[in-house]
Amino acid sequence: MKRSLDRKTRIALEPRKQPRQQRSSKVVDRILDAALILTREQGTRTPTTLAIAQRAGLSVGSVYQYFPNKEAILLDLARRWLSSFPEVIQKRINAPRPTNRDEFRREVRKLFIDTSRLYLDNVTLMPVIEAISGNADLRPIQDEYDKEIIALYAAWLQHVNPALEEKTAKRLGLVMMEVGHACRLVGLKRDRKTFDLIENDVESMWLALVTPYLNLD
């Protein structure tokens, strides 16, 4: 996967036709949904553009109007996956502020349930995510979302403790994001039981890391 993306990075990043109307946006959604279903069904095999078009109920020519190749489709799927995390974290910011450690623990548990599902449901996209991280031309795609996720983690911690300094909150947010992502990738390469155990370990590490900064009873 990484090798294929590297060879076609330049063309994959070329601007595709932008959906200006609702109908066009729905076509793009059909293409992406079909690609995601196929990646889940085929595991490590990358679906062909023809297979994606057939699953979406479109001609190959229609797909090429929006995406130059299958790598570009996978990149857009990765963008969509990355963009789902801010919404999940924002839910915790919008929730009532926890006033003690037990309440905060429950909030962390809710966040882990939501974020774990994002990884488990999109396990076949992880090679694309890793390719983005390791490719200098693609890395800015992930960096953009990383900055937003760190800022949201920081905002969440400041929501819990309004007196927490922004610099400290962002440092903690960085650790939360990096440790959580790296450990989940390791877990996904094992079996489900190991993934769940690693999730529990990461949750314990998070609590040990941030609780001293939150001024909770």
UniProtKB/TrEMBL annotation:
Record's compositionally biased regions (Basic and acidic residues): 1-17
Keywords from the UniProt entry: DNA-binding
Mitochondrion in keyword set: no
Signal peptide region: none
PROSITE patterns per UniProt: HTH_TETR_2
Stretch list, region Disordered: 1-25
Domain HTH tetR-type: 25-85
Portion annotated as DNA-binding: 48-67
Record's keyword annotation contains DNA-binding: yes
Name the UniProt record assigns to this protein: TetR/AcrR family transcriptional regulator
Lineage per the UniProt record: Bacteria, Pseudomonadati, Pseudomonadota, Alphaproteobacteria, Hyphomicrobiales
